[in-house]
Every structure is written in C-alpha cells, then in structure tokens.
Amino acid sequence: MPDFEITVVGAGVVGLAIAARLSEKHSHLVVLEKNEKYGLETSSRNSEVIHAGIYYKPGSLKARLCVEGRDELYALCRQHGISYQQISKIITATNDQELKRLESIYQNGLANGVGLEMLDKNATLRMEPHIETVGAIYSPLTGIINAHELMDYFYHKSTNDGATVQLRCEVVKIERTSGGYEITVRESGIESSFTCEVVINASGLYADRVAAMAGIDIDQVGYRLSFAKGSYFAVVPSKAKLISRLVYPVPRDEGLGVHALIDLGGRLKFGPDVEYLSDANFDYSVAESKRAAFAASIRHILPAIQDEDITPDMSGIRPKLQRKGELPKDFLILNERERGLPGLINLIGIDSPGLTASPAIARYVETLLS
Asked: Taking the CA of residue 332 as centre, how many other CA atoms within 13 Å lie in the half-sphere pointing to its CB?
C-alpha cells in the first residue's frame, strides 16, 4: 500500500488550489514545496489581476479556464473574505492602427463570452481623462485580488481537510513503480523516499525539470520552458490618482504590454515588461537602468508621467512555452497515461492567466484523474 494517494509537487497558487479541491475527497494527499513558505515565486510576483478572458484563443484552455476561474474567484472572495476589487479595465488605442487591432481583440473577447464595451475617444476620456486614447475597450469584469490571501485560503482549506503541506522539501527523483510512483525528496540535505499512486506536477518554473525526472523527454514532447522576467515600477503618490482603474495598451509583442496597475492599497504601478532570460538563474532585482525606457512606455498611455516619477518596485518570472518572438501558447495540462505514466498529471507553461484560472485548473485536473 502506498504511503500517500496523491502527491502535488509545488505549493504555488495552482498547486494549492488543486490540493484544496482534491483534499475534499482524498485526504491522504501531500503537497511538496522546496521553499520555506508556499507561494514565494510566480504566484506572489505578478500583477494580482483577475483577468476577464479577453485575449486568449477561443476554445483554448486559457480562454475556458480563465472565464470559469474568474467567476469562481469572485465567488470565493465574497464567501471567504478574500480581499478583492472589481475595479474594471480599459484597453486604450493611441492611434488609428491600434484602433483596428482593438476591434479584433474585442471580437476575440466576445467569442470567449466576455462582456465588453467599445468606447469612442470621448467616452474613454470621460472615464479616464488623463490617458492617451482614440478609443478603447471597457472590461467591467476585470479585477484585482490579494494573491497571498487567496493562497492562505487554499492552504487552510487543504490542511483542514487532512492534506499535508511539506515545506523546505525538494523533489529530486521520481520513479515509476508497480503501484504508482516513488518520490525521493531532499530536506535539510538529507534524502528520503515515499510512495504514492498519483503525482501532480504543479511546480511552475520547475515543471519541465520535474517532468524530466519522471522520464519524459521534454525536448521531444515540447515541454522545455523559457523564462520571461517582468519588472514593475511604482509611481510617486502625488500622481497615483491620475487613473481610477487598470489601463492597458494594445499589445504589440510578447505579453500584454506595460500597463497601469492599481493595487488594493491604492498604489499605482506599471509593468511588467518582458525580458527573456538566458538560463534559470532567477534574479528578482529591478534594474534602475530600465527607468527611462519604462517611463517612455508609460507615457504611451499616461503622458503625465516623467522619468523621475517612477522607482523600481518588484519583478516576477513567468514559465513560458513560447520562445521569444513566437505566438502565445496554451497551457499544457495532461494525464501522461499515453506515455506509459498513468497517474502523472503535468501542468506545463502555467503563466498568465494562471492565478485567475487556478480554481478552474483544479477542477480540470480532477476530471483528468477520474
């Protein structure tokens, strides 16, 4: 008999959401996290936006799970006192060429079932008089959330249902056995092993490496990740009230563009940019040298911001399946039974909208186990 029924590798928001859902019926579940606390990487270093589901390819997992997860997140926040605000969002076009692209984004959002409104210049300026615009999309369903409180909720729900969350516990080896898997972990330099029936790989930045531990050729199957660092700059308090909701540019390349974010404390930040890393050496510092380029990007949508109005704030790193210059790719969430690894669920390339989609991802993983 195995030591555990289910092992979840990774205690970010997605791993914790999975644990919270599965522990309702499977209390013999363990979550393994190599850091000293859950949610210290991508899950706590992002924009904390509840995305409406506008940009993603219709029919994709990102589109479907974002829309489902968005509604579920709002319900969770209301029911369990998780801090949030349905602050809304504008995607502003600043010239006629962007306005044409805005129309295709609008139609894409409608195809995903997102309620949106097209605004002309005057209507946009009535909502946000300080931004640069010739027209915009208004998204009333976009919001912001306290990601730490959300993860606290998932953590406590899991442990109250009997799950174990083991911190400072790094997975170093996964071997197939007749009854499931043997997991070797390292804690304080000491290695030990245990067995389980099911392994759910929700390890974010390390998901490709964990998949490789299980015997998958990650290059052959297209699981190898790229890492995109995104930095943020904070705006001085005297200019923090220039906007009243999230303001995004029309996307021009990788990512959604440097956009205006208001956090739950009322601080105004801009970010993230996209900086592809050459290796997995994760440095979270924000370079002061980015200030001028950042300010120029900000002025594209908020002209009143000068270089001296912004200061380096934070950064995050996103695990991406798309390489630099490629089109966005969908989430990969698969039961690997066809590769001779039944009971191994891999979640690869869970970048944005992973936070928004987290409760829906958990439900989807549950269906893969049935």
From this structure: 22
